[in-house]
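Running this now, will post back.
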Amino acid sequence: MRPIVLSGFMATGKSTVGPLVAARLGIPFVDTDALLAEAAGMPVGELFAKEGEGRFRERETSLVLPMLDDPSPRVIGFGGGTVTIQSVRHKALERATVVTLTASAETIVARVPSLPGRPNLLTASPLQRAQDLLALRRDVYGECHVRVSTEGRTPDEIAERVLAAASLDTLAMPLGMRTYDVELADGDPSRLTAAVEELAPSSLLVVTDTNVQAARGAWLEAALRGLKTPSPPRVIAIAPGEQSKTLATVSRIWDEALAGGVDRDAVVLAFGGGVVGDLAGFAASTLLRGVRCVQIATSLLAMVDSSVGGKTAFDHAAGKNLIGAFFQPSRVLVDFEHLTTLPARQRAAGLAEVVKIALVRDTALLALLERDADAIRAGDRAAIRPVVRAAIEAKIRVVRDDERETGARALLNLGHTVGHALEAHAGYATLLHGEAVAVGTVIELAATERLGLTPAGTSSRAKAIFERLDLPTEATTAQLSAAWPFVLSDKKRASTTLKLPVVTGAGAGAVERLEIEALRRAVIG
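Update: finished.
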């Protein structure tokens, strides 16, 4: 079990609930305010008033960051403002289950026994001050794995909710109040049931494809059975494959939703791989100017990449993914049981995205892929799970810092410039997306090696990993020449230049703006 962090404003119950949770689990409870007071030799209220907030936050950072590096199970009660420190907040989300306890400003002020001990509320209007601070901290308190209201609940009831959250394997995408969980499960449709019940939708529209419906439909039926919604879920099953990723398919989803009387409290369930997720996400982003969407990834590619991060799009005759929107889901569910019916070729295609993100962002994941490539290729779920988890974590770190791809998120396009061009040229009929990414990655790395931007041998290392995972790595000069016009329609192009992800070392990368003609010569010759 990971450590549990209890966060929230003062007087929301952290020091009461924390010991209860710790006792039930048989692990220690640590109160960071108590440790700060002990180290300073004075109460934290006095310390805060004496040194000021800036110095107080420095003390918190020095105390808490090393604590979070220790994976030992324990319950940690944060001070009310601890999560306002970004480095602490992000590390807590990565290393622990973060539960934010909430209460209204009126309840908080009523619970505070002594205002002199709470200098942050020591104003002419403590209630107004509490309301102001809650508003200022709204987004940072929103970045957690779960929020638990303490209004009208006993400490035991609150502790039960904390324990339930801690029992799940979840990763948080921290985007303020739009934060959502990526939950990892194993053969448990009830996790989708719980997610839908929490969202309390007025109606459900399920978007899937006919292959997924045939292979995994029983899982979905088990999850939706017994849900109390005003009307039964409407299901639209599209033809599988990239050929369906068109405006016509999006229009079909819109028509089905509107025919069912969708309103803004509706939820779209994307039940499938990358194509389904992109189409359902885009349709949800535009229906009534945006309804909620839950991504239920059934392919490995969707699990590690397309379901996470909020990119949605469909294809155009000029190229792949040229029309779309950034639209974050309300939740992502990754159930590894779906991989049991996934064809080996599709599984391998998903692994290409794992190799891609390892090359630009995660040295440890790159080494893990090389060490366990044979077991991963064979579909060993014990080997695949940590790889999937690490890939999602790496992507979360990128997206949280650059949601709309104005900087480092463009690194995740490694292999996609050439890969998308090869896909589009072949009419999406020859290569799966992941296969195209594998080919594109090796070709782009070889090109940037020739340009002196990537260390020699990087493309050979990538090629070896891809081949161990049963992925293609080559394209002929004729194929590349024929596909090159699609590079000119790439979303990252600006006039005669193009932003290209470049691997600068093992697990490290940068985005470089290159002259398209120079890149063409390096790729084709």
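The chain has three domains: 4-167, 180-342, 401-524. More later if anyone needs it.
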